[in-house]
């Protein structure tokens, strides 16, 4: 079943949905453009765009969509289509519709009642990845793993953090990525204690170097982190690294369909706290990955008791220990839950401590 068909099944017979966000437009139509809307009825789907995108939309969008380029305003066309289908109730994306668009909808669609709900329905669909999505994520991670192998040969004294980040990005683009999944993190020395530090234009400092990066393929993201050592690791650094790795391996071993997202976070957290690093793992264990690099489900202490891993979920497992002003370390893999509840780990790069 296509993404469009799945969404149409979730629509009440007398409603339509107006999709305006770039990610959900792409998810439903398979066509990426940034000016226009999808108007979806239970058994009709219209892609509204303008002349610039018309030809590409005809050839790239799911063929179930009628492609329309309204001569007058887009929202006038939406109004006419709703009247034509005799629909008076319209779902909008409550999480992304701007105040400005909301006002325009109120002005143009005076005889239509606007409801929240499209975002929630799409979130529920997007959290479960199908085969095609899993294949795209695997391809993105394959490029990301290759970038890590490549960077190991590139790292040497004198190279700047920003060079490391750019080299990873160039490599991933050259290897066939559509782009990068998020801003690359490459932070060394004391800056490695910043979980989301920004690469600096200074030479790599001795000590930990944390690299968090990912390719994007077919719109889908990869997300991995490896921490290596520039120079030699002392006993304290080895102990910290081993604790993060032990926590990550324990969480990966425990992960399976039906396991609570909260319990999984606690598996890793208990190991880190138990080793004397209480309070040093300041973020959650992981997050869903898909068209967005941070999606549901969240593997976190704050997750509800009922939130469990399900077949089709793709999540990261990324414990870390950060000692403010000193250094930090994180190790991140990305996994999927298979139909039988077993786990597929997309990330193949070594996790043994590497000294450069
Ligand atoms: Zn990451
Ligand atoms: Zn992540």
Helix content: 25-40%
| Total helical elements | 10
Please, what is the average pLDDT? 96
Largest sheet: 6 strands, mixed
Taking strands numbered 1, 2, ... along the chain, how are they ordered across the largest sheet? 4-3-2-1-5-6
Structural class per helix/strand content?
alpha+beta
Description of the molecule:
β5 (89-92), α5 (99-108) and β6 (113-116) form a beta-alpha-beta unit. This protein has helices spanning 3-9, 22-29, 51-60, 74-84, 99-108, 118-126, 131-154, 161-174, 235-254, 261-277, and strands at 15-19, 37-41, 44-48, 66-68, 89-92, 113-116, 179-180, 185-188, 207-213, 215-217, 220-221, 224-230, 286-288, 295-299, 314-317, 320-323, 327-330, 333-337, 343-345. α9 runs antiparallel to α10. It is built from ten helices and 19 strands. The protein binds zinc ion (2 copies). Residues 212, 223, 225, 332 line the site of one zinc ion. One zinc ion (ZN) binds at residues 212, 223, 225, 332.
Q: Could you outline the blueprint of secondary structure elements for this entry?
A:
Layout: H1 3-9, E1 15-19, H2 22-29, E2 37-41, E3 44-48, H3 51-60, E4 66-68, H4 74-84, E5 89-92, H5 99-108, E6 113-116, H6 118-126, H7 131-154, H8 161-174, E7 179-180, E8 185-188, E9 207-213, E10 215-217, E11 220-221, E12 224-230, H9 235-254, H10 261-277, E13 286-288, E14 295-299, E15 314-317, E16 320-323, E17 327-330, E18 333-337, E19 343-345
Parallel strand pairs: 1-5, 3-4, 5-6
Antiparallel strand pairs: 1-2, 2-3, 7-10, 8-9, 9-12, 10-11, 13-14, 15-18, 16-17, 18-19
Helix pairs in contact: 7-8, 9-10
The structure holds zinc ion (ZN) (2 copies).
The site of one zinc ion has 5 residues, from loops.
